[in-house]
Design goal:
Elements: H1 8-22, H2 33-40, H3 44-56, E1 60-63, E2 67-70, H4 72-94, H5 103-110, H6 116-125, E3 151-152, E4 162-167, H7 172-180, E5 188-195, E6 200-205, E7 210-214, H8 215-219, E8 221-225
Antiparallel strand pairs: 1-2, 3-8, 4-5, 4-8, 5-6, 6-7
Helix pairs in contact: 1-2, 1-4, 2-3, 4-5, 4-6
């Protein structure tokens, strides 16, 4: 068991590394230090100091000048932080009635202080959900997580009935944009056309409306094939 007690800073680092690892291409094993520092809003020097401490505690593998990766122990702790964060978000939306655009920052604070007992009670009250309001998977009580591959609106098939499964960008302004265009998780859509030259993706919503969004926004919307 790592000797370092988890603190909010430790948990933030582990979570940031975990989320960066999930996005690594198959050819890349390590998260680059510059990428980690940018994600956390700290200097590369500060990130390196912290990662060295995490390495000494057995939570990460650190290769100077190459990058960092979580150990099994670090991965489990990171997944449990994500579990708390995502269950808190869902609780705030479903039980407290907060808007999904506003819960990310609240959950960032609460994820470090809520007890395991309270989290289990929330999980039970919510019916053991699989995903949070943004479609992100909720890890189980032991940190286990079911990863599913989804296409984005840039890679999905055209003229096919699709369901929005996950919104990757959780910036409140972006979420309000998604909400305003009826593109929240669970909504049925079709991609009619992609125009690389115009940097645009044309969609048809369930009620027959045609909307056009930029490719940057489209890359942050993950979809699944609609079931009959």
């Amino acid at each position: 068991m790592p000797s370092m007690l988890p603190s909010s800073t430790v948990e933030n680092y582990l979570k940031a590394i975990y989320q960066a690892q999930m996005l690594l291409p198959p050819s890349q094993r390590l998260v680059q230090m510059g990428q980690l520092a940018a994600a956390l809003g700290v200097t590369p020097g500060s990130a390196t100091t912290m990662v060295k401490a995490l390495s000494e505690s057995g939570l990460v593998e650190y290769e100077p000048y190459n990058g960092v990766r979580l150990t099994a122990a670090g991965e489990k702790l990171a997944a449990l932080v994500l579990r708390r964060h995502r269950l808190v978000e869902l609780f705030l939306v479903q039980v407290m009635g907060m808007n999904w655009t506003d819960v990310h920052e609240e959950a960032e604070q609460l994820e470090h202080v809520v007890s395991d007992r309270l989290i289990e009670r929330m999980d039970d009250m919510l019916g053991r959900p699989d995903v949070d309001p943004h479609g992100d998977p909720i890890p189980g009580p032991e940190g286990e997580i079911r990863h599913r591959h989804f296409d984005s609106l840039l890679t999905c098939p055209l003229a096919t009935s699709l369901v929005v499964a996950r919104v990757v960008n959780q910036d409140p302004e972006f979420l309000r944009f998604i909400e305003g265009h009826d593109l929240k998780p669970g909504q049925t859509i079709e991609v009619e056309r992609r125009d690389a030259a115009a940097d645009a993706v044309q969609l048809r919503t369930r009620d027959g409306r045609t909307i056009t969004i930029g490719t940057r926004a489209a890359a942050n919307l993950l979809v699944d094939k609609a079931t009959a």
